[in-house]
Amino acid sequence: MDSNTIEKRIELKVPVSRVWRAITDYREFGEWFRVRLEGPFVEGQTARGMITWPGYEHYKWEAVVQQIEPEKLFSFTWHPYAIDQSKDYSDETPTLVEFRLEPTTTGTLLILTESGFEHVPSGRRAEAFRMNDNGWSQQIKNIETHVAG
Amino acid sequence: MSQAERIAVDQAALLAQAPVFAALGDETRLALVVRLYDGKPQSISQLAAGSALTRQGVTKHLRVLESVGLVHSVRSGRENLFALDPKPIEGLKEYLDVVSSQWDRTLDRLKAFVEE
């Protein structure tokens, strides 16, 4: 695998049909992905919503649905951590996120890949650090608290 | 070292990578880095050959890469060769590590969501 691709494998102890619903039903997706989407995922269309992570609630979320192959593959392209609301990211090459499902004896194997990071502009990489859950904004807050305390 | 101090040090280390990201954010420079990736030092003429760049263009981009410590020049006889110093690139791995750990947490939430 090339170094510009992230791959994750996770075993889920529920049938493929359950996982499929969790990743492709826009309301269920929103629950664990922490985004409130406006409507269902449709191939070739842009899914829009608002991030629901504490501290990032006013940020927009957007992805273009690429493939919906029932119970096998769900993919979308997006601009990871495109959090600068004043900036237009549409000219940038997005990364591709793919969820692949395989039945196992105990449930489902989910293989997630995100590829195309070589096209993510340099400045945006720094934004990813800021956006990170345990990220810098939180850590700066920690420092502030620490200093104030 | 206290936790806050450690965080401050980590953050400083990351911010120090910003110029490396900027230098690599240009396709032409990225292509030059790729061509130097096998570790063999090359001259400006060698790097210009087979690319759309002039010698001046190559020189300009090499200077940017040199300024952030991604390449350094080595003297070989009368020629000036450029070699890749891969160490700053490890910072890019840190970027992918951040995105990667983000996915770990996202998928953990998915797991909890479907298995609950």
Features:
heterodimer; A: 149 residues; Alpha-D-Glucose-1,6-Bisphosphate, Chain A, domain 4; seven-stranded antiparallel β-sheet; 4 helices; 7 strands; 27% helix; B: 116 residues; alpha+beta; Arc Repressor Mutant, subunit A; 6 helices; elongated
Q: If you average the pLDDT of chain B, what whole number results?
A: 79
Given the C-alpha coordinates, what overall shape of chain A results? globular
| C-alpha-based Rg of chain A, rounded | 17 Å
The fraction of residues in strands of chain B falls at 5-15%
CATH homologous superfamily caption of chain B: Winged helix-like DNA-binding domain superfamily/Winged helix DNA-binding domain
Overview of the structural elements:
The complex is a heterodimer of chains A (149) and B (116). With 149 residues, chain A is an alpha+beta fold. Chain A has helices spanning 16-24, 26-33, 122-131, 136-148; strands at residues 5-12, 35-37, 46-51, 60-69, 73-78, 95-103, 108-115. In chain A, helix 1 (16-24) crosses helix 2 (26-33). The longest helix of chain A is centred in the last third of the chain and has 13 residues, at 136-148. With 116 residues, chain B is of the alpha+beta class. Chain B has 6 helices and 3 strands. Chain B has helices spanning 3-15, 18-24, 27-35, 44-48, 55-67, 90-115, and strands spanning 42-43, 71-76, 79-84. Chain B has a 3-stranded antiparallel beta sheet with strand order 1-3-2. In chain B, a hairpin with a 2-residue loop joins strand 2 (71-76) and strand 3 (79-84). The A-B interface holds A 3-4, 6, 8, 10, 12-14, 18-19, 22-23, 28, 31-34, 80-81, 110, 112, 114, 117-118, 121-123, 125-126, 128-129, 131-133, 135-136, 139-140, 142-143, 146-147 and B 2-4, 7-8, 10-11, 14, 18, 21-25, 30, 92-93, 95-96, 98-107, 109-115.
